[in-house]
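Batch queue: ligand-bound targets. Current item pairs a single chain with 2-acetamido-2-deoxy-beta-D-glucopyranose. No template structures supplied; prediction is de novo from sequence plus SMILES. Inputs echoed for audit trail.
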Amino acid sequence: MSTIPNQPTRILIVGTGAVGAFYGSRLALAPQTLVSVTCRSNYSAVLSSGLQLDTHSFGSYHFAPHAVYPSISAAAQAPHPFDYVVVATKALPDVSDDSEMIAPVVQGNKETAIVLIQNGVGVEQPHRQRFPNNPVLSAVTVVSAQQTSPGSVKQNRWTRISVGPFLQGGIGEEEKESELKQRSEKANRRFVELLKEGGIADAEEYDEKGLQLVRWHKLAINSSMNPSSVLSGSTGNSRMSLDPELRLHLAGCMNEIFQTAPKVLGRPWPEKLAKVDADKILKSSERNSEGLPSMLVDWQAGRPMELEVILGNPIRIARAKGIEMPRLQSLYALLKMASIRRQEDQSKAKL
Ligand SMILES: NC(=O)c1ccc[n+]([C@@H]2O[C@H](COP(=O)([O-])OP(=O)(O)OC[C@H]3O[C@@H](n4cnc5c(N)ncnc54)[C@H](OP(=O)(O)O)[C@@H]3O)[C@@H](O)[C@H]2O)c1
Ligand SMILES: *[C@@H]1O[C@H](CO)[C@@H](O)[C@H](O)[C@H]1NC(C)=O
Ligand SMILES: *[C@@H]1O[C@H](CO)[C@@H](O)[C@H](O)[C@H]1NC(C)=O
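Prediction returned. Tokens below.
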């Protein structure tokens, strides 16, 4: 955190895709914030024209980042350290280690808070291990957004983002008071304030276990619907929810998560989340005939899927506590092998 008064808050967005561009453009509207971005494939488009946002919630507007960097090492040359490094890449720990990637902008700056806006569970652990003295903030969003062309991002609906500090994962006992805990909570509170100042009225502040419960709850949808959508031959959420056998299967998967998370985290579901049960989710999915889960879109495009953070990690975290989630384990085993086989076929086709 900037301790010198009137110093701007400096934010770096890493992975300026749909989610990174949307929240980055809102943070930039908070007073006294400078939001810079790193871009990979879209560097030249974003450098020359900035980002164009077409949003349901705030209309269309242009976002000119404070600085645009082609890489993390370029961002590490900035004259000031960043207060927040916001990671909004797809979470693919089996493909690349994001904590290693961001090391040049974090190492040596123990005040830099790392914010992870990614799906799934267990995404924080590599950052916690590599940066033991930096605040790590964990964020879950329900936004629906996609990149439409270089430098253009469309937000279809929803803005909610839930943010909480990450100390050791909320899996053990309640975290003891510590200097890192205090700094993490302070960074967390400030980040939520900045989001609100940028117009995200439903940015929500959580404690560690509370945020992990939100993560697991979102997982109930993503770990049931998304792999099933791929394995059932590219079926959308609505059709799956209306099919009697698949509906039983989906509810069974969701209930594994609903029963497991409170045992893993040692805290019951808060009333607000407990109300949203399998039946509610399936009923609302019946009406959702528009979008396809991003896991299916990635599968169809031959890209890696967020399989480890959506299935592998929760299965392993539960297993370490002596709990099996057999329906999800089957989905994981089948889809993982399908993905390995697809990759083998792709490399053969290239020969
Ligand atoms: N989109 C949604 O509606 C939504 C909603 C809720 C949660 N989420 C979650 O939010 C996260 C981000 O999703 P997204 O939809 O924003 O993904 P996305 O549009 O594909 O954006 C990911 C961005 O990260 C960049 N990137 C990936 N790996 C990188 C690396 N190693 N180095 C530098 N840049 C890298 C990509 O750059 P390139 O273009 O160069 O590949 C891309 O710009 C995911 O965990 C997703 O599940 C998304
Ligand atoms: C970046 O460029 C690629 C290739 O043109 C495009 O598919 C993608 O949507 C773009 N992303 C952004 C953030 O504009
Ligand atoms: C998670 O579920 C939501 C809601 O169905 C969907 O929009 C999103 O694409 C899913 N994420 C992944 C990684 O498939």
